[in-house]
Specification:
- By secondary structure, the chain is an alpha/beta fold.
- Helices cover about 40% and strands about 15% of the residues.
- The protein contains twelve helices and 13 strands.
- The strands form three sheets. It has a seven-stranded mixed sheet with strand order 2-8-7-6-5-3-4, with helices on both faces.
- Strand 5, helix 8 and strand 6 form a beta-alpha-beta unit.
- It starts with 6 loop residues before the first helix and ends with a helix.
């Protein structure tokens, strides 16, 4: 333990930071208990508004109105309406985000459509660049998209994407925040480099949307995808979203054309004519129950500036690292998350030799993070409901657990 920072000093500092926290009241919007929940980067906590909204959807909109709810309850337009709410959080003007399907399905749609747009510019564009540490599904889908479009996949370090794209590149698929380490990639600079090479940029926002400003429109992103069950608190299996920049919408050729994206969906014609705008990103019948649960969950964002969320995220992660340094004996853990704010998302990943048993014991003692094989303890910080006192407690319990685990091993 650091001789210059005592537990009582950190506890007092945590209390002061909580008292000054402008987002502190938002915690009351969520169903939480005494557990220190630091796994919102996998599954966000339940917003209190969701159960009542779902009960009404089931009992009244479905139970009483039944099929009339497609019109009278706004079910039909939900993917675009909720998409605009997500769009505000990720910096997209209305009409460019559609909610539906899973992240994996949307990655497939985005990558194939981006390749098709790029190949309209030149048939020589036959390469899909992906970051080599990408979430596995993104890589699997990139390989499948490559087979479908006559491309090859080139995997490079995410930081090397700007210097790896070239005249053969059709699209680069990049994770905004690395799911293992929490490293934040340079979205503006990488997007600009991809465009300079004549290619399109597809960004996976799963670990950044709701944790930090993204600025899709401001930075000229072509297409983006993301889930809604992490920092957006949409619930397990909540529908994902697809962003298609307005300039690309007329040329967005989805590899999954469905009746919901048809210009005349109820015409039931054998020939496919795509709808205009973000509707092109739809496929089949929307998953209304989970979609409307997400809509209720997003209400907590109505008066929240993303910039305030980012400021608190950095303060939380800074404070956690300080507490870990003060409490955990030297050499027991090593942060693999960048220290620089410009390179950090909203999680801290600690390499630890006893990571597996340590996380199991942390959870047993009321501190919930997650374990990533082979040796990483991962802690996610959701600024809307995570407090500084919880952060201090998590670091203190971590130190106790590591001491106990070492004693058991010894």
């Amino acid at each position: 333990m650091s001789e210059t920072t005592l537990p009582k000093e950190l506890t007092a500092e945590a209390d002061a930071l909580d008292a000054a926290d402008e987002l502190r009241a938002k915690r009351d919007a969520f169903a939480l208990d005494d557990t220190v929940y630091l796994d919102g980067n996998s599954l966000g906590a339940l917003p209190h508004a969701v159960p009542a909204r779902l009960a009404d959807v089931v009992a009244r909109e479905w139970g009483q109105l039944r099929i009339r709810s497609w019109e009278e309850s706004g079910w039909w337009t939900a993917p675009e309406r909720i998409g605009d709410r997500v769009g505000r959080i990720v910096g997209a003007a209305p009409g460019q985000v559609v909610v539906g399907d899973s992240t994996s399905v949307n990655v497939f749609k985005a990558v194939v459509a981006a390749v098709r747009i790029a190949q309209e510019r030149g048939a020589h564009r036959d390469q899909i660049v992906v970051d080599e540490s990408t979430f596995p599904t993104d890589g699997y889908i990139a390989e499948s998209a490559a087979r479908m479009t006559g491309c090859t996949v080139r995997a490079v370090a995410a930081g090397d994407v700007p210097t790896s794209v070239g005249p053969r590149t059709a699209v680069a698929l990049v994770n905004h925040v690395d799911y293992r380490t929490g490293r934040l990639q340079d979205l503006p600079g990488t997007t600009a480099a991809i465009h300079a090479a004549g290619a399109l940029a597809v960004w996976d926002l799963c670990h950044s949307a709701g944790a930090l400003p993204v600025g899709l429109d401001a930075h000229g992103v072509d297409l983006a995808v993301g889930c809604t069950y992490k920092y957006l608190n949409g619930g397990p299996g909540a529908p994902a979203y697809l962003y298609v920049a307005r300039e690309h919408q007329p040329r967005f050729d989805s590899p999954l054309p469905g009746w919901n994206s048809h210009a005349d969906p109820f015409g039931m014609t054998p020939a496919y004519t795509p709808a205009e705008g973000a509707v092109r990103g739809r496929v089949g019948t929307p998953d209304i129950l989970s979609m409307l649960a997400l809509e209720a969950a997003l209400e907590v964002w109505d008066d929240v500036p993303v910039e305030a969320v980012r400021a608190k995220s950095l303060a939380l992660t800074d404070f956690f690292l300080r507490c870990v340094e003060a409490y955990v004996p030297a050499g027991r853990v090593q942060s693999v998350t960048p220290a620089a704010h410009a390179e950090r998302g909203s999680q801290i990943a600690l390499r630890c030799a006893e990571a597996g048993p340590a996380m199991a014991e942390l959870i047993r003692r009321g501190v919930v993070g997650d374990f990533r094989r082979p040796d990483v303890l991962r802690f996610g910080f959701t600024p809307l409901y995570t407090g500084f006192a919880e952060v201090e407690r998590a670091a203190r319990v971590l130190a106790e657990v590591l001491e106990d685990v070492r004693g058991e091993v010894g």
